[in-house]
Amino acid sequence: MNVSAAPEKTSSRYPWLHPRDEIMQTMARIYRSRMTTTSGGNLSIRDDNGDVWITPARIDKGSLKRDDIVCVHADGTVDGKHKPSSEYPFHKAIYEVRPDIKSVVHAHPVALVAFSICGQTPDTRIFHQAHAVCGQTGFAPYALPGSERLGESIAEQFAAKCDSVILENHGVVVGGDSLSQAFERFEAFEFAAKTIIRGRQIGDIKYLDESQLQMARDRSVDLESMDHNTPTPAENELRRQLCEFVRRGCRQGLLISTEGSFSARVSDDSFLITPTQRDRETLQIGDLVFVSGGKREAGKKASRAVFAHQAIYRKHPNVKAIAFAHPVAATAFSVTDAVFDSKMIPESYVFLRDVLRIPYGVQYQNDGTIADHIADSTPTAVLDNDGVLITGGTILETFDRLEVFESTAEALVQSRAIGPLSAMPDKVINELKDAFGLK
User: How many CB atoms lie within 10 A of CB 408?
Assistant: First the structure.
């Protein structure tokens, strides 16, 4: 086999990036997030010539190099220094029944594997975004890994227009019109599965009905555009910080590529916010959207939560940064009726204060009522079926609160396996308020 024999092709969403590099980078991201193992999982891209670029068989996924990627040509010949993945047959089968699919991701992330060995498929209606991103879900009966029968079983699901499919006693396979879309589906599917599992530890899961899903789809984010060509040094510093903390949040599992928004106030009625439909982890400072006086920076699309951010900034001058986020343990509280009680740990109460619950859909309205749920004494909240809302006086403070929120939630979830919870009495809370100058 000859690595150099394969011509240099490009992938659809990133025309400047070779399939070898896109597969290598995406696999590194999956492995870093512990959503696959050294020997598990495989990715592929089908290019416009019908050639399939795929990860190799029996090669360490934690140290994959670009020249490890194999090209299987449309005529069946293979270029590369390794054999293609042993599960190439089901990649091929998916491409044959779904011409619209250009990339496939298969791996064994823990939560989705848990569903697979229970013979179940996660219901993505816990969040509007997960439901939209994952597409139609399916379940493929067990067949021997690498076999033609497994390919047939999976292809049947994709032929029925499924995009994210659980493999019985095996794992998951998802498809997309690009590797980036396939990855986003894979990540969102695992996130939904994790949240359901955590949620079931503390209560009954609340799923969204069609009218609630439609409410999210129908929200308006139509802002008039404006020119913004001369950002100040202060604004550029905020851009740098936002990108840094969004990236850190993704790598710590506090954010995922398709969920949540983060913003920072620039002046009285202007702020920077993450864009919509962009991978959060790969954002650059120029991708952030400047919003001022109800107008947005020309050529960019602000997060669909932009009106909620705007309302909070306008009502609360002390708020300098806002995050709508979906860390798994904290989000488990949002999809159940379980009460998030910050009065369990001194640091949690000092940072989070009294955590309120905001009814579903308030954040989608353009009437500003979301701002009524935030105050100096209530800087954080649980959003029904939509994660958490965090505010702060700086980007750092907001991110710190997000970390504390998730670590507290994780402790509360895990404590259910130990025994009754012991909340701090009012005397202790009053002592904390006096010591830290809390209102």
Answer: 23
Residues in the chain: 439
Decide if 235 contacts 242 (C-beta within 8 A).
no
Question: At how many degrees (to 10) do helices 110-117 and 179-202 cross?
Answer: 70
* Gyration radius from the chain CA atoms: 23
CA dist 6 and 19 (Å) reads: 11
Please tell me the distance from the alpha carbon of residue 412 to that of residue 430, in angstroms, as a whole number.
22
Alpha carbon distances (Å) from 66 to 32, 79, 383, 423: 17, 13, 42, 53
Q: Which residues is 225 bridged to in the sheet?
A: 296
Q: Which residues of the chain have pLDDT under 50?
A: 1-12
* β-bridge mates for residue 206, sequence order: none
Residue type, 439: K
CATH number of 3-202: 3.40.1160.10, 3.30.830.10, 3.30.300.30, 3.40.225.10?
3.40.225.10
pLDDT in tens, 404-435: 999 999 999 999 999 888 889 999 999 999 99
CB 134 within 8 A of CB 194: no
What's the CA gap between 328 and 34, in Å, rounded? 15
Q: Please provide the average confidence, as pLDDT, over all residues in the chain.
A: 92
Confidence at residue 3, expressed as pLDDT on a 0 to 100 scale: 35
Distance CA 305, CA 321 (A): 14
Distance separating alpha carbons of residues 397 and 391, to the nearest angstrom? 8
* Complete edge-to-edge strand list for the sheet that includes strand 380-383: 224-226, 295-297, 289-292, 270-273, 261-267, 321-325, 388-392, 380-383, 356-358
Distance CA 311, CA 366 (A): 8
Q: Which two tokens stand for residue 28?
A: 């590194």
* Parts of the chain belonging to CATH 3.40.225.10: 3-202, 221-436
Residue in the structure block whose two tokens are 């379940």: 139
Fold of 221-436: L-fuculose-1-phosphate Aldolase (3.40.225)
Among residues 229, 167, 219, the alpha carbon closest in space to that of 42 is found at 167
